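stage 2 :: seqdesign
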């Protein structure tokens, strides 16, 4: 079944029991992609209302999150910090560990850039169990930083009870675009 914005579900991918949300149908249609980026920007502008944006940046994990965070950062004229897998950040990598529904690995971001900002708008494609978001939130908190808003293209509805039970995600404002 295909969603209004071209999303589709691939059953048992990448492992049995997981229903993967394929975003290629959305990316194929410029009118869908443009509408989605505009919706991301609208939600973020609301969160930024009354905020001093000099110390705020967009933050996003690789790799599908980059597809949405890059045009959003451009349109809102905000800095973008990327979160990459271990070994991809050449300058002062700030490393932390992530365990999500598929695997476990180390991620990192540029520590020098991270030090420049106090608050972040987290942009990603899909909110599933929330484990990646929780690990990034903790990594930022350990540096005295905070996530103002976590914005996702969509969330896996069946996993909402798991996210609601997560202490790490409590008091975190999340918003799904579609």
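stage 2 :: out
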């Amino acid at each position: 079944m295909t969603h209004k914005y071209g999303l589709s579900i691939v059953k048992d991918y990448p492992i049995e029991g997981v229903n993967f949300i394929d975003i290629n149908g959305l990316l194929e249609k410029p009118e869908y992609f443009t509408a989605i980026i505009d919706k991301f920007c609208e939600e973020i502008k609301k969160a930024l209302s009354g905020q001093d944006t000099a110390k705020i940046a967009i933050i996003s994990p690789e790799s599908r999150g980059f597809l949405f965070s890059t045009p959003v950062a451009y349109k809102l004229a905000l800095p973008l910090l990327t979160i990459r897998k271990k070994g991809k950040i050449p300058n002062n990598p700030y490393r932390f560990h992530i365990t999500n529904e598929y695997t476990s690995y180390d991620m990192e971001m540029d520590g020098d850039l991270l030090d420049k900002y106090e608050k972040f708008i987290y942009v990603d494609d899909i909110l599933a169990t929330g484990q990646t978001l929780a690990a990034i939130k903790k990594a930022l908190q350990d540096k005295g930083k905070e996530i103002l808003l976590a914005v996702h293209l969509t969330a896996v509805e069946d996993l909402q009870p798991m996210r609601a039970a997560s202490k790490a995600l409590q008091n975190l404002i999340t918003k799904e675009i579609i």
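stage 3 :: structure notes
- Strands lie at 8-11, 19-22, 56-61, 80-85, 93-99, 104-110, 119-127, 146-155, 174-176.
- The mean pLDDT is 92.
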